[in-house]
Amino acid sequence: MLEKQYRKLTEKEFAIFEKLMEKDFSGRDVIQEQVLLSEVTEHTDGSGTLFFKIPTTVKKAEVKQRVPVEGRVETENVTMDILLHVLDGTVSELEFVRYKDDGNNVLPEPELIVVE
Fold this sequence. Notes:
The chain has 116 residues and is of the alpha+beta class. Helix content is 16%, strand content 31%. The protein is built from two helices and six strands, in the order ααββββββ. Strands 1-2-5-4-3-6 form a six-stranded antiparallel beta sheet, covered by helices on one side. The mean pLDDT is 92.
């Protein structure tokens, strides 16, 4: 069985995460600290969804819900939601849910994301 390969966020992935962090919500500062210390692996479906590996020694984020922040992209060719999942106070996933896609499965430009 192959072991998952973890890596640091790419510049674009981090820019997308930072766009989501523009919204003020409970636990945001701790989540930012966690992500700076994290590594990620990509979902095998090609969607761009990332799973986080966070050191166990980090402080837990006090969030009010599993998805404390989300973004949406709507263009002529692409409609998608971007969901940041937090489980038990730890960032677990940055999910890209595509409803309409031009077939490229390319991550959106951060400036196209509307944070909700």
